[in-house]
Amino acid sequence: MSSADEETPFDAYRERVDRPLARLFRTYGRERLGWFSIGMVANFFARAASLLPPLLLGIAIDSLFLGEQSFSIPLVPDAWLPATTTAQFWFVILVIAGSFLATALFTWIYGVTANLFAHGVMHTVRVDCFEKMQALDMAFFDDKQTGEVMAVLNNDTQNLERFLDDALMNSMRLLVMTGGIAAVLFHLNRQLAVVTLLAVPAMGLFTWWFMRAVEPRYVSQRSAVGNLNTRLENSIAGIDLTKATASERFEIGRVRDASKRLFDDTMAVLKLSYLYRPGMELLAGLAFVSTFLVGGLWLTTGTAPGPLTGDLSVGDFVVFLFMTQRIVDPLAEVSNIVDQYENAKASSERVFGLMDISTGIEDPDDPTDIEPIEGHVTFEDVSFAYDSELIDGDDERVLHDISFEASPGEMVALVGPTGAGKSTALKLAMRLYDVESGSVCVDGTDVRDVRVPDLRSAIGYVGQETFLFDGTIADNIRYGSFEASDEAVREAAKAAQAHEFITELPDGYETRVGERGVKLSGGQRQRIAIARVVLADPPILILDEATSAVDTETELAIQESIERLAADRTTLAIAHRLSTIKSADEILVLEDGDIVERGDHDELLDLDGRYAALWSVQAGAVDFERRAEALAED
Ligand code: ADP
Fold first, then answer.
1. Is 453 in the same domain as 465?
2. Are residues 181 and 242 both part of a single domain?
């Protein structure tokens, strides 16, 4: 299978996008049609003006220098032209100077307007892509496609910009130059024009061949770029593991392979491009040589060579040679235009591929208003599978007919082995995914009937990992409650037992954290997450207890602040240390997506089943720790 046929995970999400470039113009070009039109018109005049100097040179040679013809300019009535030779000479000089000036002025105008158009479109595309990405379900991010999304946001928008700016303007130039030159040449000498322009159909054929040959290579190259980005991103994210297992060589090898694939694919494209470009120049050179040969023979012998008839003036011959030279540049640009066109087509396919991904989790058409939320959470016969398409019997399901209820202010705890489905159940409560069957309700309303932001802002979440955005501690606590005052932030931090360590940091609440700031320990991060929730003050709390060990003192502090946080809120908690949920109103023991035991702590101990076994192991461990500590003290 060639690499072009390989499907990246991203491809699975993108539907076939029809005529992506036309869609780009429809969707984003319309509102900037003004700039686009001005740019095109200015470009037209710039190029048209640049054709005047050689044309006037030819006229000057024949009528002023050789005196063989009367002074006249195509499309201009003779009555408008000066009568004396001196005046005619100055007139020619003035028009030539004027046309250089006009070319410069119009080039400037089209440069500015074309860029306003191209960069304006790209700005909107970038923001729209990001907005779309923010709206996507967790299911999209589960596949860790952030590398692909970054490629769309950076590389693809850049490709489009290059196309909208360079390629479109160069196409216009190509049209004006070839059209204008052909018109001038045919006007001057039809027969010699045919000789000169014979190369053009050959160039067209050559270009057609090139486009067909290069397209699959471009597709492959684009996918190699995405592949390398994903690889790099993944490698950087996993650097801890790589170092810990001394697997740097392995990681370098993987990146080298991905980079080599991009190198190979790029070379495959370039090998063709570098064949194409000189090929085009060769054809243009051929046109020059045959014009020189035929025109030169015509002039030196004084009669038309071969089947040709009529006269050729020296001035016209010079114009022909100049114009043939001028045709090389825009035609050689065809390769670039094709490059940029192919790139832009692939890129806009990816842009719209991202835009077209359907979001499963959306606001209902007619949302139920549930505010103020009391916090009554019910799960009724909830079944769920991550990939609903894969369901083939009950085996693929992560949860099977789960039912439980948490009244306002109550705590329901989920315990059980990893992979039992505890986190999944909590994600369903936040509607990060939709249930496959059954229902999750808040205050008696199905979460699918509520506006998503209404639901999520009613829930506070403290997870195993706390991500800190680049910014200050205060910014991070305020994340989600952006209007909160400094005083409120402090109060929240105090309630979360975070105030003390924050004030000990170099800049207190204004200390920068996150990627480019100071590093905080897991326990400290967690207390910031708790402060964030205290500040937001939601009626429902979801806790996914960290498995990572923190020192006993920190653990106590965290435990205390969580208890305070949970006191008057409905709380769904995953616990690994059973001591933390001893007082829960109901404890559910999950195994392979089934509730195998349920009840409060005492009831479950009486049952003497799995919970009781887990408890005795952990209690034993606690005893063991205590004994070890006592021994150490002795
Ligand atoms: P727990 O929290 O009890 O450890 P989880 O709810 O995380 O269990 O996982 C339950 C099952 O669902 C596991 O088999 C896990 O592999 C699977 N799973 C978890 N998250 C995803 C996901 N994003 N995509 C597919 N499968 C998942």
1. no
2. yes
Q: Is the CB of 284 under 6 A from ligand 1?
A: no
Taking the model in full, what pTM does it have? 0.75
CATH number at residue 307: 1.20.1560.10
Q: How far apart are CA 620 and CA 29, in angstroms?
A: 70
State mean pLDDT over 296-307: 92
Token pair recorded at residue 542: 């979801």
> How close is the Cα of 434 to the center of ligand 1, in Å?
15
Residue 322 Cβ < 6 Å to ligand 1:
no
What is the per-residue pLDDT for 448? Answer: 94
Residue 592 Cα, ligand 1 centroid: separation in angstroms?
10
Peptide bond into 82 cis (omega under 30): no
Count of structural domains within the chain: 3
303 and 391 co-located in one domain: no
- pLDDT on residue 1: 32
Structural domain includes residue 282: yes
429 C-alpha to center of ligand 1: Å?
A: 15
- My answer on whether 299 and 341 are in the same domain is yes
Assess whether pLDDT exceeds 70 at residue 584: yes
> What distance in Å separates the CA atoms of residue 23 and residue 25, rounded to the nearest whole number?
5
If pLDDT is split at 50, 70 and 90, which confidence band does 58 have? very high
CA angle (605, 608, 609) in 5-degree steps = 110
The CB of 386 under 6 Å from ligand 1? The reply is yes
Of the candidates 583, 541, 214, the one whose C-alpha atom is nearest the C-alpha of residue 408 is 541
The pLDDT of residue 405? 95
The rounded distance, in Å, linking the Cα atoms of 435 and 429 is: 9
Give a yes or no: residue 433 inside a domain: yes
Q: What is the DSSP string of 469-497?
A: -SEEHHHHHHTT-TT--HHHHHHHHHHTT
